[in-house]
Structures are given as structure tokens and as C-alpha cells.
Amino acid sequence: MITLENVTKSIGDLKILENVTFSVDKGEFLCMVGPSGCGKTTLLKCIAGLRNYEGEIFIGGEKSVGISKKIGYVFQEFSLFPFRTVKGNMEFGMEIQKNPQKEREKTVENLLDLIRLQGFEHAYPHELSGGMQKKVAIARALATDPEILLMDEPFVSLDAQTRNMLQKELLRIWQKTHKTIIFVTHNVDEAVFLADRVMVLTKRPAAIKKEFPVDLKRERDRTSLDFVGVRKEILRELEVEYVE
Amino acid sequence: MNMRTQKVVIVLLCIGLWQVIAFLANTRFLPGPFEVGKTLVELLLSGELLVHSLVSLSRVVAGFLLAVVVGLPLGIVMGWSKRIENFSVVIEVLRPIPPLAWIPLAMIWFGIGFHSKVFIIFIGAFFPVLSNAFLGVRETEPYLVEAGRVLGATDNEILKKIVIPNSLPSILEGLRIGLGIAWMCLVAAELTGLKSPLGLGYMIMEARDLGRADTVMAGMIAIGVIGYIMNAALKWSEHKLVRWKSDHT
């Protein structure tokens, strides 16, 4: 679905990404973990076409240039348009694509069902809790039916309970919509709970350090021995990265 | 006591204090509220105050609209385009010059008629309108712009559908401040109005020549009340237009 070949990115003399090469299968849930400030966000923005880079990125077999319709993006920040309602936010991408009004209404209705926020379509973002805003942001990214969802530490600013709840919600949405997801986080627990495969990045300039397949049955038990075992392995790998 | 009654009581107290001072001073140069009120009613009934007010308002509206037509697009473009942003240096130098200091130039360029007054009012309103639009646009969070971009919006669509609506609170505030300053420039602008004997500023200056402190004060009160109403009207429309902001609900 997505293939990166030797993606390198520098800003001035500062090298942020170095020869990043990997692939993601269709429908796969990939988590990337790495030290803070290592370039995870930059990598995601390169894939989204928001940053330029050296090297090549293929999406669905085609070489990617600029913004791709196949990609939806969920930001780390609370990035809903504050001047638009929940419905208005979800409709934005469809407005840009000039989809007919009827189709937009239908999509919004389905998405409200999917994220379980029926009845909130006319609320403004500031009237919603942080967790609800994140769900709407996911729905906004899904509205134009992209094949790939890029998520940049989307749950980082939420409290632990909301975060766990949203992780479950996200898995449910993923299983229902069969999207390919690349999810960036620095929380190993989150990565092991969500991912089919966890990729550990080095500190800046970011490169791929090691990959861990997570062959645990969903829904995963965070306290089970297997779960803790995988966490331990990944944490050890990350710790080395911090010490070096 | 609710807010409204409190406000009424405060106004009444101020008028009472004014009365006491006027009584103690006991001079025709400091008339009390009753005398000024009487003059105000006379001016209202004769229609004189209305004519002066309308003439003044028309000048302020003309100058203000001109400031909006020039300042608003310029501010938005300056905030949006990195290249034009550098022009802000020029504006930062012009801004501290008080509108009053433009009067001599206005007289040289436009004489002492309508244009000259509109120009002074324009100068007063221009900078707040421009800089609020500029700041509103420039301070749009980059992730809102990127959110639009990943959803496929072009630069043009991002400006129209994201940046401008998001800057609306700041833009509207600039309009309100601009109109307030335009109104405050009125008397100064009408000082250049030797040709036309109309306008609140003119009325005040004429009363001064006659030593009529009561008429001067009546004119000042009229300016204050009209300014208050304009500000309240714009605040109300801000409230209506920007319902999506948390501090507006």
C-alpha cells in the first residue's frame, strides 16, 4: 500500500530523516515509536505530501507527488476548524471535492454513527470534550474515504482513561473501515495495544532501528504476560536509543 | 442590585457630583447638568443637533468605509503573503503618527472641504483595521492550514474557507476599534471645516467662540452618546457573527 525508499530530509544543515525505507501492507496497522523530537512527525508529513524530501514514496503503487486523495491525516493538535460545527468540519473535504450535498449529508450521518456522536452535528468544537474533538478529527479525515490514515500522536494531550477509550474506539473503526493506518506515538503501551507491527526509530536523524511484529489476539490485555513481554522488548530497544 | 441598576446608579452619582461641583464653582463657564440638559433638549427640538450629528456621521462613515476598503484587503494580503509582510515596517513607522498631525498635510492636499475631513478620519480608522486583519491572518495556527491542505484545499480555498473565517473575531474587533477612533477624530477633522458650518465639531468650536460652555458640553455629550451606541451596535454584531468562540457564549 505504502512504500518508502531512502526518504531523506534535511532542514539546512540539520538532518532529520536518513534513508528511511519500509513498506506497509494494505489494511495493516503500523505504529512508529521513537524518542521525542526524533522526526516522527516530519516523516508522517512527508508521506502526507506536506513536506518535500529526497527519495521516493509510493502510494498504492504510484509515485506520490504532493497531496494525495488516498491519505487522511489526524494531527497531534486539536485541529478542528473552530468556526465550523461538527458537521461543517466533516464536510470540509467533501466540499473541496465538490461532492453533491445529498452525498455529504449521508456521509456525515454514517460517520456520526461510526464515532457514536449522533446529535452533536451542530455543536462547535469548543463545546466538545477533548476526546470528542479527537473523534471528530478522525471522522473528518475519513469523510473523503481515503485508503490510508496517518495519525500523529493523536491522543497525546488526553488523560489516561480517555486515551484508553479512544484506542479501543480507533481499533473498532479500523476493523470496520479496513483502512491502512500509520500511527505515530512515543507511548509504547499504546503502540503494543494497537499495532500489527511496531517500528522503533532512532533519535535524530530518524532511521528505522528495529521492527517488532505484535502477534497478540485482540482485544489485547495490557496486563497479560505476552503483552508485557513485547512492551519490555520494545522499551529496551528505545532505552538504548536514549542512552546513546 | 443587578448590573443594569448598578450602571444607572453610577451614572446618576456622576451627574450629582457634577451638579455639586458646578454649584460650588458658581460660574457660567461650568454649567450644571440641568442647564446643559436644557440646552441639549433645545438643540434636539430645534433639529439643530440632528443636522450636525448627521453631517458628522456621514463624514465618519465615509472615512471609515474608505479605511475598510483599503485597510482590510491590505491587512489580509500582508498577513497571508510572506513577501508583502515586510511592508509592515512602513506601517509600523506611520502608525504612531497621531491623526491630528496629518491635519496640515490634509489641508495642503485636499483644502478645507469634505475630502480633507474624510482623509483625517480615514487615517484614524485605517491602522486598527489593517493591523487587526494582519495579525488575525498571520496568527492562524499552521495546523489549521495544513488540515485544509491534506483535505485537498488550494491556497485560494485555504484563504477563503479557513484563514479569513478563523480571523473574523480579530477583523471585527479591528473594525470596532477603527470606528471608535474615527469618531474620536471627528472634532479634529472638523477643525479643518471652515467652509461648511455644519457638524458636531463645528458646533462645539462655534459655541466656544461665543463662550457658550453649555452648548460645548451638550455637543460633547452628543458625541459620547453616539459613540457609545455605535460601539454597542458593533459589539452586538460581533457577538452574533462569532458564535463559535467560547468567550462569546
Give me the secondary-structure topology.
The complex is a heterodimer of chains A (244) and B (249).
Chain A: E1 2-11, E2 14-24, E3 29-33, H1 40-48, E4 54-59, E5 62-63, E6 71-74, H2 86-96, H3 101-114, H4 130-142, E7 148-152, H5 160-177, E8 180-185, H6 188-194, E9 197-201, E10 208-213, H7 225-243
Parallel strand pairs in A: 3-8, 3-9, 6-7, 7-8
Antiparallel strand pairs in A: 1-2, 1-4, 4-5, 9-10
Chain B: H1 3-25, H2 33-46, H3 48-80, H4 82-85, H5 88-94, H6 103-110, H7 114-138, H8 142-150, H9 155-184, H10 186-191, H11 200-209, H12 213-241
Molecular structure report:
The complex is a heterodimer of chains A (244) and B (249). Chain A has 244 residues and is of the alpha/beta class. Chain A folds into two domains: 2-70 and 147-243, Rossmann fold (3-Layer(aba) Sandwich), CATH 3.40.50; 76-145, no CATH class. Chain A is 37% helix and 25% strand. Chain A has seven helices and ten strands. In chain A, strands 6-7-8-3-9-10 form a six-stranded mixed β-sheet, with helices on both faces. In chain A, strands 2-1-4-5 form a four-stranded antiparallel β-sheet, covered by helices on one side. In chain A, helix 2 packs across helix 3 (101-114), helix 2 runs parallel beside helix 4 and helix 6 packs across helix 7 (225-243). Chain A is globular and about 50 Å long. The two termini of chain A are 34 Å apart. The model of chain A has no long low-confidence stretch (mean pLDDT 92). Chain B has a single domain (34-242), classed as MetI-like fold (Orthogonal Bundle), CATH 1.10.3720. The longest helix of chain B is centred in the first third of the chain and has 33 residues, at 48-80. With 249 residues, chain B is an all-alpha fold. Chain B starts with a helix and ends in an 8-residue tail after the last helix. Chain B is globular. The relative contact order of chain B is 0.13. In chain B, helix 7 (114-138) packs across helix 9. The mean pLDDT of chain B is 90. Chain B has helices at 3-25, 33-46, 48-80, 82-85, 88-94, 103-110, 114-138, 142-150, 155-184, 186-191, 200-209, 213-241.
